[in-house]
């Protein structure tokens, strides 16, 4: 058990938390989507250096569940919220919010929309000015996700998502998230675009290549992202990823002191 060494400031906070002198902050429910295309390649965003959480890290699209993501008015096709709840050990309301957040955040951060006019179709193109206006309205929370879909006559395609993992930010962090990870394939006809916002760079990368860049110190990956990329690097193509049956286990890295040094371990 070696783990990752913690920076001095975080190590000091870890000792305070472990001693019971500082109470951990609550973890916010969140969803993350690993967007894939043949190769396989994954879509990664580099968070701006000014961001309060994970500054400079390469991450998958995702974010916190918005209160309106749990709206029962969301038009839905595919596995039900109850079925998603069983996979992620969540109640039906939270499961609905997680799936909606996954689809909404993917659209906000990549321009890719996992929805269509019907249960067997998907939007072919989301690059027009009207789509961009809706994307920005969703980001600003001036437009609810259910209203966005209803206005366009679309249904959320939950069957285009695959459950992959469940990570909870360590108790020692100032900002914490209880995040369910999904995998999805880039729909035919759609394409990602550099939409700005929280990211200053986007890239399609083979998982193994991203791992190599991290080992060289050329990019920064947080443990959940690193672990997911390492898992995906073992597949020859998208089909293998989608065929994999995943038993979702909750992982929350923890701080331990090893030979006088505070380190973060996942097991």
From TrEMBL:
CDD domains: NUDIX_AcylCoAdiphos_Nudt19 (cd18870). The keyword Manganese applies. PANTHER family: ACYL-COENZYME A DIPHOSPHATASE NUDT19 (PTHR12318:SF0), TESTOSTERONE-REGULATED PROTEIN RP2 (PTHR12318). Keywords: Hydrolase, Magnesium, Manganese, Metal-binding. It comes from Nonomuraea fuscirosea. GO terms for molecular function: hydrolase activity, acting on acid anhydrides, in phosphorus-containing anhydrides; metal ion binding. Residues 26-227 form the Nudix hydrolase domain. Its cofactor is Mg(2+); Mn(2+). InterPro entries: NUDIX_hydrolase-like_dom_sf (IPR015797), NUDIX_hydrolase_dom (IPR000086), NUDT19 (IPR039121). Coiled coil: none annotated. This is Nudix hydrolase domain-containing protein.
